[in-house]
Sequence to fold (260 residues):
Amino acid sequence: MNLDADSWVLGADYAAAPTCATCHMSGHSKNGGRVTHDPGERISWTNRPPVSRVMDTDAEHRIVTASDPAERGVLIHDSADSKRSRMKNVCSNCHTPAYIDAFYVQYDDLVVLYNEKFAKPGQAIMEALLREGLRTPTQFDDEIEWTWFYLWHHEGRRARHGASMMAPDYTHWHGMYEVAERFYMELIPQAREMIAHGAQSGHDAAAAHVGDVVDSILARPEHKWFSEGAAEQAERIQQEMQRRYGPAAAPLPETGGTTR
Fold:
């Protein structure tokens, strides 16, 4: 790795065993060896908040949240596309363009899946509960607030960061699997329980409004299995597994899943 080099530039002095600084801060052969101490210069998504945002930033390095295109155009000082181009230049010291592009397709798809299927719906439910007075403004005095925090701050961040670092176990088993479990097995039942308590305590209109939010989310195609059952999906998965791996890909007796 030529650790004795004065410059230690990626692509010139070394090309193996990258560190965090290699990708996020280092000088490299494609940028003239310019080092940065701002890791955000090469990050195109921020995965810190409950819902990931593209890293369009203003002159003060703040995320631009304006939705109007003209207003965004004025405010954006450093775009997410520019940040991504800088990171791709780092990647290209060791990887082919096809490899780099494929990674970003996979990463973007994961972030969008998390945002649209779980984070935005979860946020909408939490906002509706607060707006209708079924939970208090005080944080963490309702069980569902702990559930939501774990969903986005723990499992959700692990999934997104795992995808950004090409870590499949953290993306799936410690990430999206746990996000889904937390959403379906805890957040939704707790929200329904709060809706029922609201109706029982005389807040019928508030309970109905929050119930409509939950029902509209679960009526979307990606959530229909939760209320309608997953037998058809499980059957399709079993057929595909058997097509790929042969008759040995039999269903598990208790779960209805498949094994190889």
Remarks:
- The CA atoms of residues 88 and 100 lie 7 Å apart.
- Confidence is low (pLDDT under 50) at residues 253-260.
- DSSP finds nine helices and two strands in the chain.
